[in-house]
């Protein structure tokens, strides 16, 4: 009988042209979890050098000169690198890589499509697509994806609303949420200052204009408080617009803009804040997805002010971790922030409830169990054709069954 430790490891190749190489979901959560479980993991992404970090080998792609260059030349280079890797499983993360996924599938490889958003909805909010063309582009993408998604071995999705599309299409699918890594909460000491924080990409659809307007009302009563906005503006000119608005409202000295920071650093920033704001506006993609920043706030024991969308409400209300507001009304956002400032004991209790909810349910440690188990089912192996370093890393119920099509069902609520 062959020694299981001498058997070759299954090789997993993660693919992205859109995301940074050390993206939270792709690298820190999925790739590192698979590497820890014993898989040979390579990540092909935009980077300036080839290196191995935390057990994941990074194969670099050049920085694109623009969106068209990324979707053509850089994508073609990614495909050639992917073929050279000759992996057992290819796990891609960008909709523009569906063609690459089809080409790899034609080579007999197992292919996973990791869906981060409800893309037909998100296209309707893309500022770089002419508003008159968005509906046509969205419909075209929807038709194209419906035609090709059945060729992939598995679709991973987040939130039930996103997953409903793929369940309707009767394709193999599994839900893996983008919950935070609990161990990061021990990295930085909690030292809250008089700061309100927003984490994430900054765009008009994410309600930042309303947040500035709300903070102007808050600062009128509490001038010693600050608003910290962390992230990259899309488009870049939007940051100038926000700065101009802050200056117009006389609060420019109380508003700080911080550019993109590495994944590990965001916890340091949130640990220094007292209130987290996640008041996206009711655009279709926003209402169908749960922002991971909501859980990042909860991870450090910070109360949240969140949009009154059903998905957000399903987390915030049962967890008792913050306040729900109409994101289109700055005065309502300001009222919620002011309430938390003026009721510190209640705010502290909300933060503690949020942290407890993350530790018990909304954590990546639980999702990594499902990811590993999903790979086991897909490959028909245990631990990627070798022993698992920690058997607990890959336990959890999963089954493939016929329901008009094969559907991978993973108990996403089960935790270690």
UniProtKB/TrEMBL annotation:
InterPro entries: Glyco_trans_1, Glyco_trans_4-like_N. Pfam families: Glyco_trans_4_4, Glycos_transf_1. Residues 27-176 form the Glycosyltransferase subfamily 4-like N-terminal domain. Residues 190-352 form the Glycosyl transferase family domain. The keyword Nuclease does not apply. The keyword Ribonucleoprotein does not apply. This is Glycosyltransferase family 4 protein. It comes from Anaerobaca lacustris. Keywords: Glycosyltransferase, Transferase. Signal peptide: none annotated. GO terms for molecular function: glycosyltransferase activity. It comes from the Bacteria.
